[in-house]
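On clarity, I found the account of how folds are encoded harder to follow than it need be. For illustration, here is how one protein appears when written out as sequence plus structure tokens:

:::
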Amino acid sequence: METDCNPMELPNNMGFEEDSDYRDFEGTDVKDMRLEAEAVVNDVLFAVSNMFVSKTLPCAEDVAYINVETRERNRYCLELTEAGLRVVAYDFDQTDDRLQTPYHETVYSLLDSLSPAYREVFGNALLQRLEALKKDSQS
């Protein structure tokens, strides 16, 4: 199974207060997918030409839509659910029920499959970060 972060790096307190909208519902965490979608966008925006949460398609607790334009100028509308992310159309703010694309656990995996330029930019950013960490540890 693919993991995108070290669980030891996650903060102990995520900042949600007891009276917030993120209460447990019968023992499971209820997520607002719009907030999840915003986090996805903020995480990889540097490596694509354009990316934003759709304001046209409806967002709910269980689904959000993200528009992305790759550096190759290909446009996609992505669906974000608990199952993961998948392409639902080949343009912004659209869905095509006939389109049967696989779910990806992470935005990294999905963009890696769609955009060689994303892969290069993301890889270079990772390399720069590793070099900075190496430099910091040597000083």
